[in-house]
Amino acid sequence: MLKIMRLILLSFFLLFFSLLSVLLLTGAIWAIIFNAPYCIFLFVLLLFIFQPIFLKQKMVLISRSVIFVFFLFLLVFIYPVAISEVNKTIADLSQKLPDYTAYSTKDKIAIYGLNIAMGISGLLIYPEAAIETLLLIFPTPEDNQRNFNSGFALKSQKIKQKIEEYHAVLRNSQQQKIEFPAERIAWKGLEIYKKLLDHEARVALALNPCFISASAEKIEDYWKLDIVCSIRCEYPQSSPSPLISQPELIVEEGLFWVLQKSGWLYPYTANWHFTQHLKLSSD
After folding, report:
1. What's the domain range around 219?
2. Chain-centre distance for alpha carbon 226
């Protein structure tokens, strides 16, 4: 039984390292196309550390662990330089805007990889915006809509303020059903995006701008409030978006607009659904 468990565990690690190696190799190829030498170095070093061979040899695992610690130490110094490289390539590519026909296939591959890199890197910090970004690479459903069930929007003060307005209407209503028409909510200014791990930034990145609407139904002694935040997921022709403040990384969304015009990305409308229950006063 113990041997079987060890075999299963080894198979799991082999599969994990294999998939990770493919991802890192893809990242290295993209960095070559994107003309980012320091990024290439980081991807290749990680590829060496996580290659799925000699996993049974203890000394190999120890040496890789030591190299990984060295990688983390090195990352502190190389990371700002790598970001600077990315900024430079983005600036160079942006000079061709708005003529989307001026972009070569190599340019489009570089931009396409950047879109995927943004999505994957944002999954842990801004999961909703990252999911919206990654889904752009897949053809849309016939109705051009994608539906999600999540109340993450309640982390925003702007959204909560609008819902409090709904609550105020419901508390004073004698009706059985109420429809709240769609209203536009937008976050102004770029500073909101620079607050890493901030709840408002997380919501703004995924929903700016969005239309919020709601449908309320009275059920015995409470209101059931079904809320939808809808946003059109597509890139504008030109819009510089700061993703990181230190060091600063600014992405020109117009580059992804080029991919939309070329049929490489597929815009859609994302509908984020969530439900609230408002208890009625017993007075």
Report:
1. 145-245+268-279
2. 25
